[in-house]
Amino acid sequence: MKALLFHGPGHIDWGDVPDPTAEDAADAIVRVDAVTICGTDLHIVKGDVPEVEPGRVLGHEAVGTVVEAGSDVRSVRPGDRVLISCISACGRCRFCREGRYGQCRGGGGWVLGHTIDGTQAEYVRVPFADLSVHPLPSSVDSFDAVLLADIFPTAYEVGTLNGAVRPGDTVAVVGAGPIGLAAIVTARLYSPERVIAVDLAEPRLAAARFLGAEATARADERPEQLVADLTGGLGADVVIEAVGVPESFEMCMRMVRPGGRVANIGVHGKPAVLHLEDLWIKDITITTGLVDTSSTPMLLRLLAAGRLPTAELITHRFELGQMEEAYDVFGRAADTGALKVALGGPQHDAVIAPAGR
C-alpha cells in the first residue's frame, strides 16, 4: 500500500510500505477513506517529537471502513464505517478505568503515528478497536467526522474543560488555528460573556469571528491591552494556549486575571519561562494535558444534531496520493490560508481487504 513516511526531521514522502496485519485479537484493520494532517504532525517533521523514529507512517486522525476485525472485537465488524480516535485505550489499566485514555499504560495512549504506524495511509491497524474506533451514523459526512478524531475533543477536553469555562467568563484563545477555532466553538457551549481570539494571520482571525469570537486581536499589536480594556483591567478568566511556542505561553500568563485559569493545549518543542516572581501571588491555575477522547461519543452526538460547525474548518481537500502537496499547503498556512486540510479517495465501490488476507 501507499503511506506517508517520516524519514527524519524535514524529510517525508508518500511511498510503498507493507500492508498492515493484525497483531492481536483486539485489532481492527481499517481502510482509510478520509484523513487529515495535524499541527502535531508538523512538529514531528520539524523534529520536536524525538520519540517518532525514521520509517514511521505518520497520522492519527481518520475515518474509514473496517475490513478486518479481530476475534476479541465486539463493537464493529467488517463493512462498518468508523471514526478512528487519535488515542487508543487498553481499557484495563488504572488510567483507562478513570477515563484518562491519553495516559494509558497498557499499550495505548497516543500511539498512532507516534510509536506505531498511523493513519496517513491507505490502510491502518488500530489496536484496542473496541475503545479506539467509533461507529458513524450514515447521516454524518466523513470529512465532517474526521475533525472529531483529534481537534474537537482536544480543544474541548484540554482547553474548555481543563480551563473550567463557566457562564459569564471572558475567554481568550491565543492561536486561531484549527485547535484554537475548535476551542472557540466548544467554549461557547458554556455561554461565556465573550471570547477573544488572538493570532498573527487575519484570515484566521476572520474565521474566529465567523465561529463566534466577539473580539479579535493581532498577536503583534498588544492583545493584552485589548483583554485588559474589555475586562476593566482584570484580565481574562480563562486563557487557552493553542500555539505551542514560548512567546504565546508567556503572553497567556500576562492576559489571565488573578484567580484565573490558563489551559495549555499547544505542543511545545522548547522551554517557556514561567515568571513565578509575578505569578506566585495571583492564584493562577495552569493546566496541561494530552486529550483522552472520552468526550468523543458526546461530540459525535452534537455533530449529528448539527451543533458543531466542523465543515467550516476544512479549507483544502486533496486525494490521498497528494499527501506531500497537502503537507506543503498546511505547513505554509500563513501563505495559503489553510486551516485544516482533508484528504480522501478515490472511493472504492466495495470493501476489499489488503492483499494477503
Strand tally is: 16
CATH architecture of the largest domain: Alpha-Beta Complex
Largest sheet features: 7 strands, mixed
Number of discrete domains = 2
Q: Which percent range describes the beta-strand content? A: 15-25%
Q: Structural class from helices and strands?
A: alpha/beta
CATH topology (fold) name of the largest domain = Quinone Oxidoreductase, Chain A, domain 1
The CATH homologous superfamily of the largest domain is termed: Medium-chain alcohol dehydrogenases, catalytic domain
Radius of gyration: 20 Å
Number of helices: 13
User: Gap between N and C termini, in Å?
Assistant: 14 Å
Q: Helix fraction?
A: 25-40%
Tell me, what is the CATH class of the largest domain? Answer: Alpha Beta
Average pLDDT, to the nearest integer?
94
Shape: globular
Point out poorly predicted stretches: 347-352
| H-E order | EEEHEEEHEHEHHEHEHEHEHEHEHEHHE
Describe this structure in words.
The chain has 357 residues and is of the alpha/beta class. The chain has two domains: 201 residues, Quinone Oxidoreductase, Chain A, domain 1 (Alpha-Beta Complex), CATH 3.90.180; 135 residues, Rossmann fold (3-Layer(aba) Sandwich). Helix content is 26%, strand content 24%. It has 13 helices and 16 strands. Strands 3, 5, 6, 7, 8, 15 and 16 form a seven-stranded mixed β-sheet that branches. Strands 11-10-9-12-13-14 form a six-stranded parallel β-sheet, with helices on both faces. It has a three-stranded antiparallel β-sheet with strand order 2-1-4, with no helix packed on it. β12, α9 and β13 form a beta-alpha-beta unit. α5 crosses α6 and α8 runs parallel beside α9. The relative contact order is 0.16. Its cofactor is Zn(2+). Belongs to the zinc-containing alcohol dehydrogenase family. This is Zinc-dependent alcohol dehydrogenase family protein. InterPro entries: ADH-like_C, ADH-like_N, ADH_Zn_CS, ER, GroES-like_sf, NAD(P)-bd_dom_sf. Keywords: Metal-binding, Oxidoreductase, Zinc.
